[in-house]
Amino acid sequence: MAMTNEHEALTDPASVAIHDGDARDFFALLKPRVMSLVVFTALVGLLMAPGQIHPVIGFLAILAIAVGGGASGALNMWYDADIDQMMGRTAKRPIPAGRISAETTLAFGLFLSVFSVATLGLMVNWLSAGLLAFTIFFYAVVYTMWLKRLTPQNIVIGGAAGAFPPIIGWACVTNSISLESIALFAIIFLWTPAHFWALALFKSEDYGRAGVPMLPNVAGERTTKNQIVLYAVLTALSGIVPSIMGFAGLVYGAIAAVLGAGFIWYSIQVWRMPDGDKKMIPAKKLFGYSLLYLFAIFTALLVDALVTKYFGLVA
To answer: Which of 10, 28, 27 is nearest to 210 (CA)?
Structure first.
């Protein structure tokens, strides 16, 4: 009930001193770091897809996907303003900091949602637009409004939202969903739990203060560490699937295997970390490596696609 009251207070314009906000505040609402990952993985899906797309249409497609990803971030910040003010890493976001109103954020997020989906549908195809609309809905409603505050498996199920961009990029070219695009989806989907649970381990006090049921706060550190190792192994295996399926080359497969082995190694260091360790250095290292892993995997996929599809060479 207290959390509900705080949420209502933050959405009441008379409750806090609100400034108009400037361009930097609106840009912050888009969660630019998350949006950059959305853009990059969608671009890889688009370039790996069989067939061709006009460069201008391709650019508009990626722009629309980026705007849709930003819309999801804005809607997330609108609804999560009450818990954002309780957590050290989010307290300076535009709404809890009083730089922009909740109402403005909601209107901004809804406008960008409609604009991005309509643009993608009218300029590219309606399958990709429908997938983008579903992604925005899944992140803003299913994850943010429901799963995040309900279950410690929030990030497992909710991770699907962040895994859709390569499928959307693929659909922009082919107007279809294929096993190959689902394999790209699986890499991100399986990567998400280990990535976020590593963060949750060294930010557990933040999540506990905000009342968010992250796995370390509900099931304890040992269970979380076991789950991190499990998902690290699944992520490493999913990373080599594109090579096994034949839509990425052997060089990519070797790179993915090495990166996956690193992911497992860092997860084992977290598993070996004593329960109650206040420094959480292995968890912080795993969190950093997980970001590097996903970027490197999709970079390798992108290079493979450019080499094989656009330069006619075998990677």
So the answer is: 10
Query: Predicted confidence band at 14 (pLDDT cuts at 50, 70, 90)?
Result: very low
Q: Please, which residues have CB within 8 angstroms of residue 205's CB and are 6 or more apart in sequence?
A: none
Give CATH 1.10.357.140 domain extents, the chain: 1-177
CATH (one of 1.10.357.140, 3.40.50.300, 3.40.190.10, 3.40.350.10) for 1-177: 1.10.357.140
Which region holds residue 246: left if phi is over 0, alpha if psi is between -120 and 50, else beta?
left
Lowest mean pLDDT of 95-109, 122-136, 278-292, 298-312, name the range: 298-312
Separation of alpha carbons 86 and 7, rounded Å: 11
Ranges 7-16, 127-136, 216-225: which has the least confidence: 7-16
pLDDT of 236-263, one tens digit each?
A: 999 999 999 999 999 999 999 999 999 9
Q: How far apart are CA 16 and CA 102, in angstroms?
A: 10
- Matching residue, tokens 């979380």: 224
Q: What are the b/e assignments for 151-184, b being 16+ CB within 10 Å?
A: ebbbbbbbbbbbbbbbbbbbbbbbeebeebbebb
Query: Of 260, 267, 263, 261, whose CA–CA distance to 282 is shortest?
Result: 267
pTM of the model: 0.90
Separation CA 154–CA 142 (nearest Å): 10
10 Å Cβ neighbour count for 220?
12
